[in-house]
Amino acid sequence: MKLGLKKDEIILAPHSNEWDTEFLKTKHEIQNHTKLESSRIEHIGSTSIRGLMEKPIVDIVVGLDEIKQIDKSFSEGLKKAGFLRLGVERPSEVVFAKFTDDTYDMKTHIIHLVEYKKELWNNLIFFRDYLNSHEATRKEYEQLKLEYVKESNSGILEYTNHKAEFVKRIYAMRLKG
């Protein structure tokens, strides 16, 4: 298992059961440094979906009651666990990342800090669970990702945009119940 990607790099790797082991190790580190409840730290993203080609980065969703005012001790705890706050901020999400070293060249883990059990949390968990339960949809998603990397091995924003309609379609299924 080779974990990590350089800035703006897009490489897909075969699924590895080691991703789950890495997530559990990282979850333990986050809990040790933040005292966050276990239920508020979940493995998401492609590395949490069995049998899917994925970017070798472990995505984690962390749920807080409020993300507008992040407690300083919580941020310090994430820093002690090796995570740095990135400049990426969206209305309902704050992003932290872990790097291989202090050159900050290779990112290995991403934390998506969101409000616990609110819309984005629920969508991210539903997406993971739905793809793990529906092989045809999982293969469709994988094909979409492979189409992109066939044309380019860079452009994280373009890669994300390439998958956006698919992701929105799965999120909408959660609302249909």
In brief:
By secondary structure, the protein is α+β, with helices and mostly antiparallel strands.
Can you walk me through this structure?
- With 177 residues, this protein is an alpha+beta fold.
- The protein has helices at 18-34, 72-80, 119-133, 135-151, 156-176; strands at 5-6, 41-44, 58-64, 83-90, 93-99, 106-115.
- The protein has a single domain (5-176), classed as Beta Polymerase, domain 2 (2-Layer Sandwich).
- Helices cover 45% and strands 21% of the residues.
- Strands 1, 2, 3, 4, 5 and 6 form a six-stranded mixed sheet that branches.
- The longest helix has 21 residues, at 156-176.
- The N and C termini lie far apart (36 Å).
What profile does the largest beta sheet have?
A: 6 strands, mixed
* H and E string: EHEEHEEEHHH
Shape: globular
Helix content: 40-55%
Topology record:
Layout lengths: L4 E2 L11 H17 L6 E4 L13 E7 L7 H9 L2 E8 L2 E7 L6 E10 L3 H15 L1 H17 L4 H21 L1
Helix pairs in contact: 1-2, 3-5, 4-5
List the main descriptive attributes of the protein structure presented here.
177 residues, alpha+beta, Beta Polymerase, domain 2
